[in-house]
Amino acid sequence: MNCRIVIVDWLDTVDSSTWETKDEVQLKLVKQLGWLVSNQDGCVKLADTLSEGEYYGITAIPSGCIQLVVDLVTGEPESY
User: Fold this and answer.
1) Which of 19, 38, 74, 77 is most buried, judging by how many CB atoms fall within 10 Å of its CB?
2) How many domains does the chain have?
3) CA angle 79-50-30, nearest 5°?
4) What residues are paired with 50 via a beta bridge?
5) Is it the case that residue 1 has pLDDT exceeding 80?
6) What pLDDT digit, counting tens, does each position of 43-62 carry?
7) Which domain covers residue 50, as residue numbers?
8) Would the CA dihedral through 80, 57, 29, 74 be positive or negative?
């Protein structure tokens, strides 16, 4: 499998169990680098490790959380 290396900007959920108000609790923008191993079924999967032809360290990101995907080789952005 030949996967592209990308950087993904995505919004992560935040949980607060302290005395923070609703205005203090905000989504967190995450910039994650990895091999794009899957983009189907409403989910993008990134791998952080490639060893002996197999991808590991998989992060599954719901497509609805993704703001931007940029191919690091071509520099081409893909909006979501």
Assistant:
1) 38
2) 1
3) 35
4) 55
5) no
6) 999 999 999 999 999 999 99
7) 4-15+24-79
8) negative
Place of tokens 């995450």: 30
Q: Yes or no: say if 12 and 30 are a contact pair by the CB < 8 Å rule.
A: yes
**Amino acid letter, 56:** Y
8 A C-beta contact, residue 13 and residue 30:
no
Quick one: tokens of 22? Answer: 């609703």
Report pLDDT digits (tens) over 19-28: 999 899 999 9
User: How many residues are there in the chain?
Assistant: 80
Alpha-carbon distance of 11 to 30, in angstroms, equals: 6
In sequence order, what are the beta bridge partners of 70? 7, 77
